[in-house]
Amino acid sequence: MISRTTTPDPSPDLSSSDPNWWRQAVVYQVYPRSFADADGDGLGDLRGVTERLTHLAALGADALWLSPFYPSELADGGYDVADYRDVDPRLGTLDDFDAMVAEAHRLGLKVIVDLVPNHTSHRHAWFQEALAAGPGSAARERYVFRDGRGAHGELPPTDWQSVFGGSAWRRVADGQWYLHLFAPEQPDLDWSHEEVREDFRTTLRFWSDRGVDGFRVDVAHALAKDLTEPLRDLGDLPGVAEEALDHLPPGGHPYWDRDEVHEIYRDWRTILDSYTPPRTAVAEAWVPGPRRALYARADELGQAFNFEYLQTPWDAGALGQAIADSLDTARAAHASATWVLSNHDVVRHASRLVLPPGTDENAWLLSGGRAPGIDLAQGLGRARAATLLMLALPGSSYVYQGEELGLPEVAELPFEVLQDPIWEQTGRVRKGRDGCRVPLPWTRSGPSYGFGAGGAWLPQPQWFAEYAVEAQDGVEGSTLELYRTALRLRRKLLQGEELTWADAGPAGVLDFARHEGWRCVANLSETAVPLPAGEVLLTSSPLQDGLLGPDTTAWLG
C-alpha cells in the first residue's frame, strides 16, 4: 500500500448527508479488472478495489461506479453477463462485494453498479436452455430467435448490423438465427417477455438489498424493439444509416430509443423508490438531447449521460453551446445535468482533446498514436483545463479511473495483445477500446507499477511510471493534487444548479458565474487573456504574468 500524505476531507459530503446526493455528485468510475489486483493473477478484483477505496475518498469523490463484475467470459470486457446476481470468481465473491460496499460506506462513498439489461452472455443459463430446447420452445421466447430468409433459411432475418461490426444475427445449429446488437456472445433479450422483466426486478432488489445505492443502465435505449412480423430491414427506410436516430421519426427506429422502453423504466422506478433513501439510476442512452430527457424523468431513471459534451471538440463556441443545450435538456426532465470527459469506451481525453480536428481516431490508434503525433504536454494542459471547467458546471461529474493522474491513451498497444472483441469482429480493422483500459499505475516501479504482485492483463508502457499515484502524491502542481484540491473546493463552493454567462468577453473564452461570486473562466484560445476581478482560488495551469494562458481554466471567488 502507498502511504498517504492526505486524508479524506472531513467536511460533510453529499454521499452521506443528502438523499439527493446524486444531483451534483462526483462519481468515480472503476473498471474493476484494471483498477487494482489483490491476488496477483494480473486481473483486477474486488478486494483490490476495497484496498484502494481510500484513494477515492482522499480524492474527494462522492460515489464509486463499478463497471461489471459479474460472471463473464470477457467476450466484451464483462458486459457479457452470465449471472446477474453473483460475482465472477476471478474477481471475488459476494462476501468480497459486501465488504467493499461496507468499506465504501464507512468512507462516505456511495456505490453504483453497472446493470446490463439489453443482452446476456451466451453462457447464461437461459440461453443455454434456449439452444437445447430448439425452435418454437418457450425458452427461446426470452430471446429474439427467428427463421432465416432464403430458400433454406441461410440468410439473416434482416439487414440489421451489430455495433461491433457485421450482421446482428448469428445462426445456430438447428438453422434459426438469434439477434445480437453487440458481440455474438451477447444475445439480445426480448423485453416484451414478462419473465425477462420479472427477473430484472429481482436483480434490482438483490443488489439494493445488499446496500447498493444506484445503478448505471447499459445501452438503456435498446431494450424495446419492434419485433412485429415481418421484421423491417433498415434498407427499407430510404436514406437512413444504420445507427442514425436523428433521420427517423422520434421513437421510430426498429430497436434504438423506442417509446415503449419508458414503460420499463417507470416500472423500475417503483422498485427504486421503495427503498429509503430511493436508489438512483443513470441511463447510458446514445440519443439526441430532447429524447435523452425522457430517460431522466423523475418517474423513470432520474438521470442520463450527456454524450454531446464528451464528443464536443476543444472549441469555446461549440462547448458553450453544448453546455447550454445540456442544461436545457436536464431542466426539461427536472433532472440534473451530467458531465463526462472519458470512460471505458472512448479515447482518453488527455489524448483526444489534442488530436487535430477531423482526425480518424481508429486510424490514429492503428498507427500506434504516431500518425498524427500529438503534443502530450498540450494534451495534459487541455485535460486539466477541461476538468476544472466540468467540475464548475451544475450537475454530476463522472470521472474515469486514471484521469486524475492525467493518463493519456495507450495507443501503442501491439495488435497481438488486444482483447476488445471489436478487433476480431471487424476483421482486425477497428482497434477497439483496450487503450483506455490498461491497468492503473500505483507505484513508480514493480512488475505492474503497483497494480498487483504480478503482471497486468494488458501491458503497461514504461512511461506509466511518471504518471503513477506514487509519483504525484503530495507533489504540488501534479494532476492528482489538482483533482484533490478542485474536489475539496467544489464541495465548499457548490450551491444551486444554475449558472449565469458573463457578457461577451475575449474570443475563445468561456466565462460564467455560479453563486455568491464563484466564477469559472476557461481560456480555449491561443493567447493569454486578462482575468476578471476576484480572488484566484485555483487554476489548471500557472498564470502567465497574471494573465490566464491558453488551455487554462481558473476559478475565482
UniProtKB/TrEMBL annotation:
Residue span, Glycosyl hydrolase family 13 catalytic domain: 29-437
Source species, domain of life: Bacteria
Keywords in alphabetical order: Hydrolase
A GO MF label: hydrolase activity
Pfam (any one): Alpha-amylase
InterPro entries cross-referenced by the UniProt entry: GH, GH13_cat_dom, O16G_dom_2
Record has Cell cycle as a keyword: no
Family: Belongs to the glycosyl hydrolase 13 family.
PANTHER family in the cross-refs: ALPHA-AMYLASE FAMILY MEMBER, NEUTRAL AND BASIC AMINO ACID TRANSPORT PROTEIN RBAT
Name of the protein in question: Glycoside hydrolase family 13 protein
Annotated source species: Streptomyces pseudovenezuelae
